[in-house]
Amino acid sequence: MPTLFERIVAGELPADVVYRDERVTAFRDIHPRAPVHILIVPNKPIPTANDIADADEALIGHLYTVARDLARREGIAENGYRLIINCNAHGGQEVYHLHVHLLGGRPLGPMLQSMVVK
């Protein structure tokens, strides 16, 4: 069964697409965690970071150059932004189609909240 992101890439579901080429699609997150929250997904379905193949190296690099360009276009490059890839349940992955979160537009604070590890 196709993932939500595969359906967005295929044009089957609506999304606020901000960039698309033959390798990646980028769209605004429907539940933004920052003033700018864009998801950048490979058009090729790759379930998790663990599933990236050696042959995907150029594609993964392209995700990051698209993120850089979108940060510039969104006006957040100079002050800074965060790029996040979540992997599997403990990493917080909700949709099993690899994606990069581009977040910015305000100070984002610490990466993780302090917690007691037992």
Task: Please describe the topology of this protein.
Elements: H1 4-9, E1 17-20, E2 24-28, E3 36-42, H2 57-73, E4 81-84, E5 100-104
Antiparallel strand pairs: 1-2, 2-3, 3-5, 4-5
Structure description:
With 118 residues, the chain is α+β, with helices and mostly antiparallel strands. The chain has one domain (4-104): HIT family, subunit A (2-Layer Sandwich), CATH 3.30.428.10. The chain is built from two helices and five strands, in the order H-E-E-E-H-E-E. It has helices at residues 4-9, 57-73; strands at residues 17-20, 24-28, 36-42, 81-84, 100-104. The protein has a five-stranded antiparallel β-sheet, with helices on one face. The model has no long low-confidence stretch (mean pLDDT 95).
Please describe the structure with a list of short key phrases separated by commas or semicolons.
19% helix, alpha+beta, single chain, 118 residues
Quick recap:
This protein has 118 residues and is an alpha+beta fold. 19% of the residues lie in helices and 21% in strands. It has one domain: 2-Layer Sandwich (HIT family, subunit A), CATH 3.30.428.
Q: Assign a percent range to the helix content.
A: 10-25%
> What does the main sheet amount to?
5 strands, antiparallel
Helix count from the secondary structure assignment: 2
The helix/strand order is HEEEHEE
Average pLDDT metric: 95
Assign the CATH architecture.
2-Layer Sandwich
> Which regions have little confidence, pLDDT < 50, spanning 5+ residues?
none
How many β strands by DSSP? Answer: 5
Secondary structure class reads: alpha+beta
The first-level CATH class is given as Alpha Beta
